[in-house]
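Apologies for my clumsy wording, but can you show me some protein sequence, whichever is easiest, together with the matching structure tokens, please?
=====
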Amino acid sequence: MRLIPLKNAVQVSRWAASYIVKKINEFQPAAEKPFVLGLPTG
């Protein structure tokens, strides 16, 4: 786990969205290799 101190919810949302986009792009999904996002819903 890491702590990334940000000032407000907008910054947190933007950071999270950028992180997800980066991970999807690094994975290079294709029809044969889809990116699957697992969400912990508890």
Summary: The first helix runs from residue 9 to 27. Residues 16 and 22 are 10 Å apart (CA to CA). The mean pLDDT is 95. The chain has one helix and no strands.
